[in-house]
Design brief:
Radius of gyration: 14 Å
Number of strands: 7
Number of domains: 1
CATH topology: Rossmann fold
CATH superfamily: DNA polymerase III subunit chi
Order of helices and strands: EHEHEEEEHE
Distance between the termini: 34 Å
């Protein structure tokens, strides 16, 4: 059961249809764009610093008409932050997890979005996280994106 300190209102798992290079990153860009338009502050957790830097570039170029103010952890406090670690002082309300691990400080976010690539090992790790959240009193929602990613 959830503790009184927990703030999480919703946990979504997005199962991508494609394991193509940058499929997860492109989906994260689209999700961040939608969330930013709804006045969310977003933290995107990546697998590595290199992935965070790549995503930093991709957020500027994934769509010509898009402008998403963002930056890397350790820089300015932007509405969208990227990093392979989640600092305890982050106050964003949506966590987009591109990592294959349970994000640290996950319970401090109002919403979690787990982006899962359709590879057997990554799907198995995502199932473990799904079960973890259920054991802690949450009801994650799974979205099989079919050919949309």
């Amino acid at each position: 059961m959830r503790t009184e300190q927990a703030r999480v209102e919703r946990i979504d798992f997005y199962i991508l249809a494609s394991a193509k290079p940058q499929a997860a990153e492109l989906f994260a860009c689209r999700l961040a764009e939608k969330a930013y338009a709804q006045d969310h502050r977003i933290f995107i957790r990546t697998r590595s610093r290199a992935q965070a830097e790549s995503l930093d570039e991709l957020l500027w170029t994934f769509r010509q008409s898009s402008f998403l103010p963002h930056g890397l952890v350790g820089g300015e406090d932007e509405p969208i932050l990227l990093g392979d670690t989640v600092p305890a002082e982050v106050t964003h309300d949506l966590l987009i997890n591109l990592s294959d691990e349970l994000p640290p400080h996950w319970e401090r976010f109002r919403r979690l979005a787990e982006v899962v690539e359709p590879e057997p090992a990554l799907l198995a790790q995502a199932r473990e996280r799904f079960r973890f959240y259920r054991r802690h009193g949450y009801q994650p929602i799974s979205h099989n994106l079919g050919s949309r990613s």
